[in-house]
Amino acid sequence: MDDFTHRYGPVAVVTGASSGIGRSLATQLATRKLDLVLVARRLDRLQQLAEELSSEHGVEVTVHQADLADPAAAAGIVDAVAGLDVGLLVSNAGFGMKGPFELGDAQTLTDMTTVNCHTPTQLAHGLVPHLKQRGRGGILFTSSVEGLLGCPFSAGYSASKAYVNALGEALWGELTPLGVDVLTLCPGATDTEAPRLLGIDPASLHDLMSPDDVAASALEHLRQGPTHIPSEHYRRQFEQLLAIPRGQALTAMAKAVSGV
Fold it and tell me: Is residue 143 pLDDT above 80, yes or no?
C-alpha cells in the first residue's frame, strides 16, 4: 500500500461523480486503488462508471443516487457510508448561474445555494468525527476562482464559492494538526458540461483546462492546502485583481462581462 492509499483510503466518497471534474477525480482515485462511493443524480451514468472502474482497476465501487439540492441529501449520504472506513471526502458537486442577479430564477438560486454551500457543510460535519478518530485522511472541496472575489453578473455563484473557500480554510486550520488534510480546489475555465449548460462555448474561454488535468493537480496538491488554483493563467489574473483596490477590480470585471 502506498502512502496516498494509506492516508486517504480505503474508501473515498465523491459527489458530482457522473461527469466533469468529479468523474476525473473518481477515475484517478480508482487508479490509486481506493474503493469508491459515487454520488450524483444520474444513476445510469453512475452505474456505467462504477462498472468501468471496478473492471479496470479492481476496486469496489458503490453508487448512491441523490439530488443534492434536497437539504436532506447530505444526511442520507452520511448514513449510507456509516459502516465504511471513509478516508477521503471529495465534495465536488456544484453548479452556477450567470447574468444580472435579479433576473435569475429564485428557486434555482435556492437550489444552487443548497448544492454549493449546505451540502458540503453537512457532508463535512457528518464525516469529520470519523476522520479525526482515524488520525489521517482528507477533505477536498471543489470551489472556483470566482470564490476569490465577488464577480459581477455571477453574484450568487461567486458568493456560494466564497463560502466554500472560507469553509475549507477554516477546516484546514482545525484539522491539519490532527492529520486530516483539507484542500479547496479553485479551478478556472474547465472543459466540462457546466459552461455549455450556461450557454457558453468552452472554446471561447481563456486557458481552458481538461477535467483530467484539474483532477490530477488537485490530488497532487492535496497535502498542500488550504487552497489550490491549478491554472497558472487564472492564478496570475486573480493575484493581480486582488492586488488593486477592490472597487477598481470589481468595476473592471463588470465592464469586461457586460461589454459596457
Answer: yes
